[in-house]
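Supplementary Note 2. Why include the ligand at all?

Several targets in our set were suspected to adopt different conformations when bound, so apo predictions alone were not considered sufficient. For every target with a known small-molecule partner we therefore ran a joint prediction. The input for pyridoxal-5'-phosphate is given below.
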Amino acid sequence: MNLFESLVRPNVLKMKPYSSARDEFKGTAKVFLDANESPFPNGLNRYPDPLQRSLKAELGAYFGVYGEQILLGNGSDEPIDLLIRAFCEPNRDHILITPPTYGMYEVCANTNSVSVINAPLDLDYQLQTEALIERLNDCVKLVFLCSPNNPTGNLLDEKSILQITDATKGLVIVDEAYADFSGFSMLKHLPSRPNLVVLKTFSKAWGLAAIRLGMLIAHPDVLFWLNRIKAPYNINRMTMDCASQILNQKGTVAQQVQQIVEEKNRLVSFLESSVLVNHVFPSQANFVLVRFKDVQKVFQHLLSEGIVVRNRSNLPECLGCLRISVGLPAENNMLMQALRALERTQSL
Ligand SMILES: *Cc1c(COP(=O)(O)O)cnc(C)c1O
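The joint prediction is reproduced in token form.
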């Protein structure tokens, strides 16, 4: 029996999934006349593998998991949406999120008429574990945690995540979009916790935001339901080829991550010494959240210099804060020069 049969929505439990031509015939043949494709070879005329087995084998080897534990999506947003559609009954079930956090969990829930329970982070942007656990009930099917968290940049406490995972009857999803910069991952806990789900993306450290590739890693009993409802050929051939190429250049990616971390440290030291700044939040990601004394003035000044950062100052938990991504050394220098120039006008 599947471990999550009682968690999945009744319609998903009962439905007969779509079976594509490539699902029904998996062997090798002389001629393929089963999928109404064009027979003229151009490298892209055949449908891709609906389960992306070859790429998953490479990814599994890289991340130290089995291919059967991986689901690939069109960005991370697709797995987030699949989780909600597979497990949350509209107008009945809930997801739990920990604001301030990534906006897509709530948007996806709203799209699916699934309501959102908030368990806010504390003033250091850490989990309030007991208060969160009190908000769990049988209708809270999914708990979304983001570590390192966007927009705050900090890692969430490992013990707290495990406590929550053990306390809920639902799934705990840890979004590790920025984990490459932190060197920490919850992946090692998957074998002991079948209700733990890890999300990864190729959009940040891997430098492939344009190919739209996200990854969900979980127990095969979770994947069983997601694979049942996903679009048959959800990952295209070009995306798969591109991801496979980058996996063969992991050395380059690792160097880039190292350089971003060094640049971030340089930026943080600068910001900590700036009279414009109220507080620099500790970051394990490729961005920093900074509270400024006069956030509107700084934001407008940077814009006037052609420098765009993310204004998070309207989020109740991030009053006065800008989120600044770490760029190339020359780009970071431009940011710092613009801030120095503003400092000089302030001290006149
Ligand atoms: C950027 C980001 C993602 C990645 O989204 P994609 O759809 O994979 O590009 C996922 N989660 C968080 C928290 C992010 O900040």
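Residues 75-77, 102, 146, 150, 175, 177, 201, 203-204, 209, 214 surround pyridoxal-5'-phosphate (CB under 6 Å). The longest strand covers residues 140-146. Comparable summaries for the other entries are listed in the accompanying table.
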